[in-house]
Design a protein that fits this description.
alpha/beta, Amidase signature (AS) enzymes, 11-stranded mixed beta sheet, 15 helices, 11 strands, binds glutamine
Length: 484
């Protein structure tokens, strides 16, 4: 077994017992990534090898702790001091932040090593990573397919073994959906659980930072580092962070699982339904209580999301005006032309579509009919979940209606592309935590199972996921042997 193949937990164990050195690990990881990423194209920016090796050698001179000397990746939406942060947009393609996002500082304190910045849909708007202004990322299970999005680079890099874990963001499904398509673990924590400070904003009432990893245990380890209150983020909640690894035991007797009938209806591929139903059988046979439930307002979640998210995006993206950050058109002789040409040249089509949708929904005369209405629908969706959780511990569904689709197949049809998030968006609208874990294969492609929990109850989600993972062993399957 090569060192890059180890899980985070195994890397920690072997570094701690001095079976391996950080330098050996970094060498193995870097070489594998350089080779593999020619095909997968997960990284926008790969850190310089000499710098990585220097950091690793320095770690070897000190006692091991935390994740010292372990390489990891960041979606290119996290500000990193001195390291280019593009959000996969031309408008930021020369932006070097002067500070780190809080989560990056937390990982730095543990002396993790940033291997690089990962590809994504521009400003996190998309479901396939084809909307990156630079290049599409390829799914390691089948290079002709998308890795999902918007955090597609973060998911593909973990699936291809390029890094043991990465961070992404999830506004409507951008962690869980690519995790499902790439056969890795992807957790979107409760809104407010992890700091968003220093993370480039898309839709501030929905965005949440989360983890991609090879196993559920690794996810718990990273959550222990990144979760917790941050005074710099006024939406981060000041409650105690539990030790997430303590939830990992396989006894799920008596666990109450709800299965929403609306999440198994039309448009869900037969192979996806089948694998999730098999997983539900496992839970039943392990003593969990599985019952069908209804979340009656599910069908309104996606249309409401496509008003709320673009509305917030149109406000957040107003700051990219050519004055303060990144790209500026310098050929104009007045400021209004400079603004409009900078934005016209800097933003891609999907971002412009969202800005137009958002400003329209917020404009006077339409605000009540669209934006306010969407907020009322959001409350109904939240109430559906609250009612269901009166008698349940978790809710289980497929993560996505299908497995990964082909590159180019949906790009010309935004509405079809939006439907990929139909099963993940309601969770963001309600601010709840959700995980996607691999639960099987359909025609050789990974199927994701979504486990949704009560607010701030990531522990029960991790426990439920862990029990299945221990039984299935699915997480040790690797994609595409010719690629990795
Ligand atoms: N695909 C959804 C969108 O395009 C969700 C994106 C996300 O979660 N960042 O808005």
């Amino acid at each position: 077994m090569e060192l890059w193949e180890l899980t985070l937990q195994q890397m920690i164990g072997q570094l701690n017992s001095r079976c391996i050195s950080s330098a050996e690990l970094a060498e193995s990881v870097y070489e594998h990534t350089e080779k593999t990423d020619k095909a997968v194209k997960a990284f926008i920016t790969l850190a310089d090898k000499d710098k990585i090796m220097e950091q690793a050698r320095l770690c070897d001179t000190e006692a091991f702790r935390g994740i010292k000397g372990i390489p990891y990746g960041l979606k290119d939406i996290f500000c990193t001091r001195g390291l280019k942060t593009t959000c996969a947009s031309h408008i930021l393609d020369n932006f070097i932040p002067p500070y780190n996002a809080t989560v990056v500082n937390k990982l730095n304190e543990q002396q993790g090593i940033i291997l690089g910045k990962l590809n994504m849909d521009e400003f996190a708007m998309g479901s396939s990573t084809e909307q990156s202004a630079f290049f599409p990322t390829h799914n390691p299970w089948d290079l002709e397919r998308v890795p999902g999005g918007s955090s597609g680079g973060s998911a593909a890099a973990v699936a291809a073994g390029e890094i043991p874990f990465s961070l992404g963001t999830d506004t409507g499904g951008s962690i869980r959906q690519p995790a499902a398509y790439c056969g890795v673990v992807g957790l979107k924590p409760t809104y407010g659980r992890v700091s968003r400070w220093g993370v480039i904003a898309f839709a501030s009432s929905l965005d949440q930072v989360g983890v991609f990893s090879k196993t559920v245990t690794d996810c718990a380890i990273v959550m222990n580092i990144i979760a917790g209150h941050d005074p710099l983020d006024s939406t981060s909640v000041n409650i105690e962070r539990p030790d997430y690894t303590r939830f990992l035991n396989a006894d799920i007797k008596g666990l109450r699982i709800g299965v929403p009938k609306e999440y198994f209806q039309q448009g869900i591929q037969a192979g996806v339904k089948e694998e999730v139903k098999k997983a539900l059988k496992f839970y039943e046979s392990s003593g969990a209580l599985v019952e069908e439930i209804s979340l009656p307002h599910t069908e309104y979640a996606l249309p409401a999301y496509y008003l709320v998210a673009p509305a917030e995006a149109s406000a957040n993206l107003a700051r990219f005006d050519g004055v303060r950050y990144g790209w500026r058109n310098t050929g104009k002789d007045n400021i209004l032309d400079m603004y409009s040409h900078t934005r016209a040249e800097g933003f891609g089509d999907e971002v412009k579509r969202r800005i137009m949708l958002g400003t329209y929904a917020l404009s006077s005369g339409y605000y009540d009919a669209y934006y306010l209405k969407a907020l009322k629908v959001r409350t109904l969706i939240y109430q559906d979940f609250m009612k269901a959780f009166e008698n349940l511990d978790v809710i289980i569904s497929p993560t996505t209606p299908s497995t990964a689709f082909k590159i180019g197949e949906q790009i010309g049809d935004p509405l079809t592309l939006y439907l990929n998030d139909i099963l993940t968006v309601p969770v963001n609208m309600a601010g709840l935590p959700g995980i996607s874990i691999p639960c099987g294969l359909s025609d050789g492609l990974p199927v994701g199972m979504q486990i949704i929990g009560k607010a701030f109850d990531e522990g029960t989600i991790l426990k439920t996921a862990y029990a299945f993972e221990q039984n299935s062993g699915f997480h040790i399957k690797l994609p595409h042997p010719e690629v990795i």
